[in-house]
Design brief:
The complex is a heterodimer. Chain A is about 45% helix and about 15% strand. By secondary structure, chain A is of the alpha/beta class. In chain A, helix 10 crosses helix 11 (about 335-345). Chain A is globular and about 55 Å long. Classes of the chains: A alpha/beta, B alpha/beta.
Chain lengths: ~350, ~400
């Protein structure tokens, strides 16, 4: 029997690359776009990212944008460049492993923000306030959480913004999963007063349209901060692949319609997975993003073995700082429900007193 | 038009910041001939572009591992075996990077750790210093001289090591940037022996290894028995295949060091565009004649520049390789920075001031020969006019 491999370990949903996106990159190559380009990104892409960010979180000042070679380069630049100036950073106990990797590259004083399961592993306001009061001048937060999909709501993000302002601090805000928030409006930190100067937001450019393996990310913030980062971007990689950037330019055109359909399909998959998990008694961490679901199997090694046997790849929470949990990516087919059923069957409490 | 830049302002800038400021200034003018940046004017060969197009359709859904596609790593292993005599295991001893630039950054992080010393020949490509600065490392400079064609003398390296016990690594860029000097095979052997004696790691930058002139011979340190276990070697597709915009390079070396390079790669960028990787695969496994053709063209262009430099009285070392010439322009009577600025302002020629590589090179200029021959000849004519005005 052949086992079909279903990859539920992805950070972002995947889709076949739309022909128009490939054509955009191909046309750029044909017109000679094979040379170095501006460190911060080609103008058409920078403009589109600025527009996207302004629409997502209207503010007084249009952000400066720098295109990065994927979201990890954005993390690295934000953490190391801004972190050094701030004298260190405070980061969540549960976050993308790339955050800790970037912070550990050279010694940078780091404070860990406690995060509990009940809050979807988002650091609470008290933890944020405590870290700032203790002297932290740079916060790194994910909203939605890259592990659970939990996101700060409007009130919480406003309070975080106020705390940052009150302590004359800065904040790096990873909003890469924001496009998948489906049950309510997304609350970005930059929408709040004073954050245009203090917040640096990052994420993937148009996630879900098939560009994941092209590695196109962004960082946006005030001109002074972005200028300093641009210098380091040049040192790290000079510029981002031109073909990838022009593919992203073309992706911006097809994104709205494709994304709308994708969110609808993922939301349906997410809700089905949630219902099935509840029906089967599998504990879950309910988030705000339709792209993923964190679950709490009774025994992780058994769960991983059972899923692997059934052809599913998932993400072990230990990588994010959440041992004992697994992250399952939602897909536009029935794979999420299938994985949950397999998990529930494999890790259900044994009956009949096995000896 | 009069330049908006002032020497006093520019004097505050170093390295690529200075280069970018001059590039930005040049963009204000029409008809500029740019001889500043190392970006070949050639087109990426068509078979490489075609492979990229194919990958867009068929491979966009792939998730390349941090260290790069297995097929590309295999091709890189074969490439360094064939051209450099370096034997590596493609599974454990190759990491694909976002161009040679990221390769530099990763090598420095992986080898030096924080505060370590790096022995470099002076002048050298500014990114090494930037990466060193990032790691709060110590630059241990070994002087080279134009009248010695910027040779890195093993005895001077030994003396530098005596004076700086913090040294952990030795950088060898051959052909050199900006000097275009090629480290002679006997000197490579001596330096490898010295590194072995002192327990140093060697960082070898071979990015211009396909561009050698006048019978110059390039020897990769990692091809020597004592060099292999202690050398990280970088290269990239940018210069050889006119692929600067694709951002693909690599680091190869012994498994233990490469594990650290991979770890650093995961922390810095996490991956390399899959389409660029397939383009790189086509470059390495497809026809190589475009590289030979480019080298032949560059050899002719180099002559145009050296003849003009001779006429102007510029002093340069023998440019045995690479894609540029580094020359002392003291004869002009003004700083090279002013010469560069006047060249933009008066004749719309962009060249790089030597001060980008340190104060001690304030009288030097770096000129690339990456423009068509007619353009290059025109640029030299214009530059001669600038020099004549400044000297009069």
């Amino acid at each position: 029997m052949t086992t079909i491999h279903r990859d539920l370990s992805l950070d972002q949903p995947v889709a076949p690359l739309p022909p128009a996106v490939a054509a955009g990159a191909s046309d750029a190559l044909a017109s000679g776009q094979t040379h170095y380009v501006e460190v911060g990104g080609v103008a058409p892409l920078v403009t589109r990212l600025q527009t996207m960010l302004a629409e997502a979180a209207p503010g007084d000042v249009a952000p400066d944008v720098i295109v990065t070679a994927g979201v990890q380069e954005a993390r690295f630049l934000a953490i190391q460049v801004v972190g050094e100036k701030a004298g260190g950073l405070a980061l969540p106990a549960v976050c993308d492993p790339g955050v800790r990797r970037a912070a550990a590259l050279r010694s940078l004083p780091t404070t860990v923000l406690p995060a509990t399961l009940e809050d979807g592993f988002l650091p609470g306001l008290a933890a944020v306030a405590e870290a700032l009061a203790a002297g932290a001048r740079l916060l790194y937060l994910e909203s939605p959480s890259r592990f659970t999909g939990a996101a700060y709501d409007e009130d919480a993000s406003a309070e975080i913004a106020a705390l940052v302002e009150a302590h004359d601090a800065q904040i790096v805000w990873d909003q890469g999963l924001a496009p998948w928030v489906h049950r309510r409006l997304y609350a970005s930190i930059v929408a709040h007063a004073g954050m245009a100067e203090r917040a640096l937001v990052l994420g993937e450019a148009w996630p879900g349209v098939g560009l994941e393996a092209w590695f196109v990310g962004y960082l946006a913030g005030c001109a002074a901060t972005i200028d300093g980062i641009r210098t380091y971007k040049q040192i790290v990689s000079i510029c981002t692949s031109t073909a990838a950037q022009f593919a992203a330019v073309a992706a911006a055109e097809v994104y709205p319609e494709l994304h709308r359909r994708q969110v609808e399909a993922l939301a349906e998959s997410y809700e089905s997975g949630l219902d099935r998990a509840r029906a089967l008694g599998l504990p879950v961490v309910e988030g705000a993003a339709a792209s993923l679901l964190a679950v709490i199997p009774s025994d992780v090694p058994s769960a991983l073995a059972a899923l692997a046997e059934a052809g599913f790849s998932v993400t072990d929470g230990a990588e994010f700082g959440a041992p004992g949990l697994l992250r399952l990516a939602a897909t536009t087919d029935d794979a999420l429900v299938g994985a949950i059923e397999r998990l529930a069957a494999a890790t259900a409490p044994r009956r009949g007193g096995a000896r | 038009m009069t330049t908006s830049l002032r020497i006093e302002d520019l004097s505050q800038l170093r390295g690529m910041r200075l280069t970018y400021a001059l590039m930005a200034e040049a963009r204000r003018y029409g008809n500029v001939i740019a001889l500043g940046r190392g970006d070949p004017d050639f087109d990426t060969p068509p078979h490489i572009v075609e492979a990229a197009r194919d990958a867009m359709i068929h491979a966009s859904g792939e998730r390349p591992p941090v260290e790069g596609l297995p097929a590309l790593r295999l091709a890189i292993a074969e490439r360094v075996r064939r051209y450099n005599g370096i034997e590596v295991d493609p599974d454990r001893e190759v990491v694909v990077t976002n161009g040679g630039q990221e390769a530099i950054f990763l090598m420095v992080i992986a080898v030096l750790g924080e505060g370590g010393g790096l022995v470099v020949s002076d002048p050298n490509y500014s990114t090494y210093l930037d990466a060193l600065h990032f790691m709060r490392g110590e630059r241990i400079a070994v002087s080279t001289f134009v009248w010695e064609s910027f040779r890195i003398d093993p005895e001077r390296v030994r003396a530098a090591l005596e004076a700086h016990p913090s040294a952990r690594a030795l950088l060898l860029v051959s052909p050199g940037n900006p000097t275009a000097s090629v480290v002679a095979p006997d000197d490579v052997r001596a330096l490898v022996a010295l590194a072995a004696e002192r327990g140093l790691t060697i960082l070898a930058d071979d990015i211009y290894d396909r561009f050698l002139y006048d019978g110059a011979e390039h020897l990769s340190p990692a091809s020597l028995p004592d060099g292999a276990p202690r050398t990280l070697t970088l290269n990239a597709l940018s210069k050889a295949f006119a692929m600067t915009g694709w951002r693909v390079g690599w680091v190869v070396g012994p498994a233990e060091l490469m594990a650290r390079v991979r770890e650093a790669k995961a922390a810095v960028t996490g991956g390399t565009s899959v389409v660029s990787q397939y383009a790189a695969l086509a470059a390495l496994t497809g026809p190589q004649d475009s590289v030979d053709e480019m080298r032949a063209v560059l050899a002719r262009r180099r002559k145009i520049v050296t003849e003009a430099f001779d006429e102007m009285g510029f002093v340069y070392g023998v440019p045995q390789g690479g894609q540029f010439i580094f020359a002392d322009a003291s004869v002009v009577g003004v700083s090279a920075l002013e010469l560069c600025l006047r060249a933009i302002e008066q004749e719309q020629v962009l060249i790089a001031p030597g001060v980008s590589f340190g104060e001690q090179w304030a009288n030097c200029v770096r000129v690339t020969f990456l423009q068509p021959e007619e353009q290059l000849a025109e640029a030299m004519t214009r530059l001669k006019r600038v020099v004549a005005r400044l000297r009069s």
